[in-house]
Fold Fe2OG dioxygenase domain-containing protein.
Amino acid sequence: MSTDDTEMLIALVYSLLQSNSRQSEEAVLDALVQHNGNVEAAAQYLNNRGKKRKRTNDLTSWLGNKPNKIVKRDDEDDMTLTRKSPSTSKPSSSSKKPAVNLMTVLRQAPPSPSKKPVSPPPLLLSNPAMVEQHSPCTMHLSVLPHELACRLFYTMVDASRGWGRNKWWLFDRLVESPHRTSFFARENGAEGSADAWQEAARFWYNGRMTEPPLEFPASMEEACVIVERLVNEELRKRQRFPLEWAGQPGLEYIWRANVAASNCYEGAKECVGPHSDQMTYLGPYCTIASLSLGARRIFSLREVIPKQEKETRSAQTFNIPLPHNSLTIMHASCQERFKHSIPPQSSMDLYRPSHPRVPNDTSNCRINITFRFYRPDFHPSSIPRCKCDVPTILRPDMKNRTDGKTDKYWWTCYAGAQNEGKGCDFWNIMDMEKEGRGPVVGETTV
Ligand SMILES: O=C(O)CCC(=O)C(=O)O
Ligand SMILES: [Fe+2]
């Protein structure tokens, strides 16, 4: 999740902006979209915009002076940055710097007054019908019995006191996610060994060494049974994509929530930046069921416009308020087409549980639990390793997608997230047939 293209690209653009160039995150995002995710071009565009300021730094020389050179191969997507082979040099002095909150990297300047809108204004999707109409998500209100929803909320709020903030390297900077997170594996939910789950959990924490994943608490298991039923009902109604998991003969359910990740956002400022979830164990066209408990926050969705369509349409942001005890299902194609985020807010309403632990209890916490189906054919043992001998991650080629049938996915190096930003240039296309994956819904043509 967190070490994603968008956050990384935005932070890189900021790092290339001249000190007197004041740009909002939205302006940086727009510049990236306009320049096909090309960091240098976006930064150059923003630096030159208005032409009022004199350039003091040459971008190429800036890049040339960095310890980790960013190189772009001719055959790769513009969104993609790779780094030179792993360096054998000693850790840089930057490794001694404390981790920086990611949002302080992203929010370095107030909005630019001269910014011209390039996208339609955000649209509020205020009810399930609108969510279904405008996005690849469905929204389900009051999904759990009220008592269970409150019990699970309290269980997770208490547990979250012990959770950490993900930390990872953005090139030469150690950044920290502005919310706390934890990863759970369902008892008997997994085909495979404890080692496999350990590796899957490690991936959730951006490649950091970790304890074995936690088991589902009893209230999470109760909720999971309800969520699983609802997701499978929805799946049966929907048109499916060729690379989706076809299910196994004799099994009632296609989609099984065998893992879950939980996030706690305490207060209005805690957030998660725009990203699409990595598909390493989920496979293409995955379905993710996201339960919201406690304080209401906005869930933001923004489409990534494919290159061939960017002349004819621009992306719109959709904002979905997520009330307590609601389930948002990110259906197949959501991770391929959209980035999602929980943006920071200037203020928020407190949540008052219907079954309070103490009278008149209130909370400023939002708990999110994403129930996920780690596919048997994307088992940790089947994940290719890069030249650094670290399991790769699977990313969709969002900007070159076309029809949902022949779209490409790439296995890419992930070592840099924990190795002071140093990774390798491993960049392999995923081939379902050659890699022996499936069964899938339709023909696998890559
Ligand atoms: O909190 C949410 O609703 C979103 C969380 C999320 O995007 C993630 O964990 O990948
Ligand atoms: Fe996510």
